[in-house]
Every structure is written in C-alpha cells, then in structure tokens.
Amino acid sequence: MAPNSLFAVLLRSPWWVSFLAAGAIALACGALLPSHVAPYAAVGVLPIFGVGCVAAWRQLRAPSATRMQAALDEAGALPWRALADRLESAWRAEGHTVHRLPAGPADFRIEREGRSALVSARRWKAGAHGVEPLRDLQAAMRAQDVASGVYIAPQGAVSDAARDFARDHALAIMDGPALATLLLKAPAAPAARR
Question: Transmembrane residues, as ranges (predicted)?
Fold first, then answer.
C-alpha cells in the first residue's frame, strides 16, 4: 500500500476519522443522489468503514504512551548486554531467528521468512546520530550480502544527512516509539514475573 494513499492515511489516523468520513459520504449520497440510487452508492463507504474497524482494533491493542515511555526509560538504564538480551527476546517473540554478531558495525542478524537484516544497536544511548555509523552498517550489509539494515536510535537527534543516507540505502532507523513497541513484545524477565 502506498504510504500516502487514502487507506494508509486513514489507518494512521484516529479510528473515528474513518467512521466520520464514511458517515459524511453516506449522508452526501443520501442528500445529493436520487432516492432509488442513494442506498447503492452509499455501499461504497464500506471499505472506509472497514479501514476504521481495522484502525480501531490496532489502536485499542496498542500500548499506552505511559507504557511506551516506561519501556524507553528502562532501555536507557540497561547495560548493553541486558538490552541485547531484551532485543533478542523481542525479535524471537515476533518470529525472527536472531544471530548475535561479533564486534563490528552490526550487532545482530535477524531473519524471518527468508529475509535477513543486519541491526546496529550499540549506539542506543548516543545523543546524536550521524551518517558514519550508517555507512559502516551499509558496508557490513554489502559484505554479508544482506539487503536491509536497521539502525536503532531511540534517543538523541538523527541528522538530516543520516536520514537521507538511510532512505537511499535500504536502512530503517528505529526511533524511540518503534523500539518501545518492540521491547514490549519481549517476554517478561524472570525477576519481573514475581
């Protein structure tokens, strides 16, 4: 789906926007079309109504802003090994196969459904993120013949040049909300279950 298509925009919008749009279109059909045609034309709002249902389902299941901030705060306080364990656990919960990599620009290789990605996560506490670590990750991707990469940058500013480089080289930048959503998928640690 194109990122700026009507359905994509409605999926990202609050759920009630889709229902409001569907209602407005149905009312316009009833007011502007002959009475014998209006009900059939109003059926055209069913896809928009369906998108509203999907958006409502996703938004009701999404973690609250408080939970996401708590997950980010916890991640910021973790040492590298503990964060790496949480990331690995979260990716496994999503169905990925996870391989930790020795020292280098990439920390993980994740695989799912025949697709692989290299992940660079060690700079998760950096205050600024420039192009250089992304160049290193892209070079590692070429060396390992991997088509995509993920750079984890939950805090600090990512420069415009870094964002442009990422866009041009099949790199995804995982920001704070995306990282929090991922970490919340990880099973609770044994100490936290008590």
Answer: 15-33, 40-57
